[in-house]
Design goal:
The complex is a heterodimer of chains A (about 280) and B (about 290). Chain A is mainly α. Chain A has one domain (about 65-275): MetI-like fold. In chain A, about 75% of the residues lie in helices and about 0% in strands. Chain A has a two-stranded antiparallel sheet with strand order 1-2. In chain A, a hairpin with a 2-residue loop joins strand 1 (about 240) and strand 2 (about 245). The longest helix of chain A is centred in the first third of the chain and has 37 residues, at about 1-40. With about 290 residues, chain B is an all-alpha fold. Classes of the chains: A mainly alpha (about 280), B mainly alpha (about 290). Chains A and B meet through helix 1, helix 4, helix 5, helix 6 and helix 8 of A and helix 1, helix 3, helix 4, helix 5 and helix 7 of B.
Chain lengths: ~280, ~290
């Protein structure tokens, strides 16, 4: 009896130790970004004092520098514009494709679906060198349009795959009934399937957008002007002047960019997982 | 319009787009790797396997190939062990689970380049907070503190650590999906039959989630082996190319060095692994289709 109690308490303690340990380990860099953002410069670079707390009054100096004296807002703007255009292209192509693969093409649908998913495994680091040539010959070097053109190459496969699973969960009888009532198959898709699929479409929108903000290699290779950077390249590369790192402002930029993306992502996590488990979980 | 034609009309645009933006450069990568393309030049001459020969002769390349393997294997071991423990701890519902989930997901959802620059500050040669703690605990002397990104072995450990930090949440949520799909009564029945915690774990739980562990590892291998962001931001491959991996070497050779052909030849070395993973992934997908 007593032994069982001890074991239960031991189990609980281990459980919480694991959870707290991992949370601290994984989230610490973000705490560090936060405290570095608001620390006064003296406080930030003083090795004699406890670095984990504010030893002097917090300051907005680094944020002011970030917003007034750097192109950070411009980079955020670039990212939002490119993200929106990529979302548009991705939805336009992947929604019909996913529906067709889920419904109309039978066994081939499954095969093509897996095929399109596998293209998601082809990494940018294999394609970026030839693509830089292609981009140059299209006259798109150092233009954000190059990213708008290339990013759907990984957002379409992923979105199509996710949406395919989503459309399969809609009972086909729904469209059959609508077609008996005189709608064509395509009409049923437009007027019936799309309206009831808004949550799936929203999920894909969020993931496409986050994939765009996370991309690094293409943005680093294709874009050279400081004013045309995406936020993921602009912050780590262009906020550094020569060898001087403005750590306060740099950490502020990381934190401000990451948190909203993290919040959005968290809301849609379960669908994201469903997309990655490749049917290995039922 | 027949439904077959309609189907084709609906999925062809997506397939053609992806083929154009992935298939064309994929093919070009092979063509470049047997040619003499430079950023500045316009012509193309077939040179056979010359680029591969010169790449294989280069000590930097061999070092990068070795580093890539160390980087990938090291990261996968840490991620697999860490995420299995964490997923098991997250399996049952408890108060505060949402907050814990949000915190542990941060490394995966934040843009990778920004997470990496955060670590660059944590591992700074002068102001590293890790060193501050080590010095405060009298584990190292102030003038003798480790240069995390400046010494070969420490630098490799650092890039592996940061890559693991980034991939651990991803692997955890995938394993978690596998764990929650196990019918509750199976481990319970085992417990009634007298199986202890470890026995239930290794003889029931882990074998049952093996397919999903495969998926997590396959994705993890691809993500690590083909990633250059963490290395590029933290060390630029240094010191002395001791953390150079194949993708970052391809970048430095092809983009900064201007030798597209040799860069392409280097990145071709990623292909065998991609093919192997794609094959294994298809087997997982196929098996789940059959059962």
């Amino acid at each position: 009896m007593v032994q069982g109690r001890v074991r239960e308490i031991f189990g609980k303690v281990t459980h919480w130790a694991v959870l707290v340990g991992f949370s601290v380990l994984l989230a610490f860099p973000f705490y560090w970004m936060f405290i570095s953002t608001f620390k006064r410069t003296n406080d930030l670079y003083n090795l004699k004092i406890n670095p984990f707390i504010f030893n002097e009054k917090p300051t907005l100096e680094h944020l002011r520098l970030l917003f007034n004296d750097t192109l950070y807002l411009r980079w955020l703007g670039n990212t939002v514009v490119v993200g929106a255009l990529v979302v548009f292209i991705t939805l336009l192509l992947s929604v019909p494709a996913a529906y067709a693969l889920a419904r109309l093409t039978g066994r081939w649908g499954q095969r093509l679906g897996i095929g399109i998913f596998l293209t998601y495994l082809v990494p940018p680091t294999l394609l970026f060198l030839p693509l830089s040539r292609v981009i140059a010959s299209l006259g798109l070097q150092d233009s954000l349009w190059s990213l708008v053109l290339v990013y759907p190459s990984f957002t379409i496969p992923f979105s199509t795959w996710l949406l395919m699973g989503f459309f399969k969960s809609i009972p086909p009888e729904l469209e059959d009934a609508a077609m008996v009532d005189g709608l064509t198959r395509f009409g049923a898709f437009l007027k019936l399937v799309i309206p009831i699929s808004t949550s799936g479409i929203l999920t894909v929108t969020i993931f496409t957008f986050t994939l765009v903000t996370q991309e690094f290699v293409y943005a680093l290779t294709f874009i050279s002007s400081e004013s045309r950077q995406m936020v993921g390249v602009g912050v780590p590369i262009f906020l550094v002047r020569g060898d001087v790192y403005y750590w306060g402002s740099l950490m502020a930029a990381c934190l401000i960019t990451s948190l909203p993306i993290a919040l959005l992502y968290d809301l849609f996590l379960d669908r994201f997982i469903a997309g990655f488990t490749v049917g290995a979980v039922k | 319009m027949s439904s077959r034609k309609l189907g084709a009309a609906m999925f062809l645009p997506a397939i053609l787009y992806v083929l154009a933006v992935i298939g064309v450069p994929f093919t070009l990568a092979f063509i470049y790797s047997v040619g003499d393309v430079k950023i500045a030049s316009v012509g193309y001459h077939f040179v056979g396997l010359e680029n591969f020969r010169s790449v294989l002769r280069s000590p930097t390349f061999r070092r990068s190939l070795f580093d890539s393997v160390v980087f990938t294997v090291g990261t996968q071991i840490i991620v697999l062990v860490g995420s299995t423990i964490l997923a098991l701890a997250l399996k049952e519902k408890f108060r505060g689970r949402g907050l814990v989930r949000f915190l542990i997901l941060l490394p995966w959802v934040a843009p990778v380049s920004l997470g990496a620059i955060g670590w660059k500050w944590i591992l700074d040669s002068l102001y590293s907070v890790i060193n501050w703690v080590l010095i405060a605990m009298h584990l190292v002397r102030p003038y003798d503190a480790p240069m995390w990104l400046g010494e070969p072995v420490l630098a490799m450990m650092s890039v592996i650590g940061v890559e693991s930090w980034r991939l651990l949440p991803f692997s955890t949520v995938i394993l978690l999906a596998g764990l929650t799909a196990i019918p509750r009564d199976i481990p319970e029945a085992a417990a009634v039959d007298g199986a202890g915690f470890w026995r239930t774990m290794f003889q029931i739980t882990i074998p049952m989630i093996l397919p999903i562990i495969n998926v997590a590892v396959l994705f993890g291998v691809i993500f690590t082996f083909t990633d250059m962001t963490v290395v590029y931001i933290l060390t630029r491959g240094g010191p002395y190319d001791t953390t150079q991996v194949l993708p970052s070497l391809a970048f430095f050779t092809g983009v900064l060095g201007g030798d597209l052909a040799e860069g392409a030849a280097i990145s071709i070395f990623l292909v065998p692994l991609l093919v192997a993973v794609a094959y294994l992934m298809l087997r997982v997908a196929h098996r789940s289709e059959v059962t």
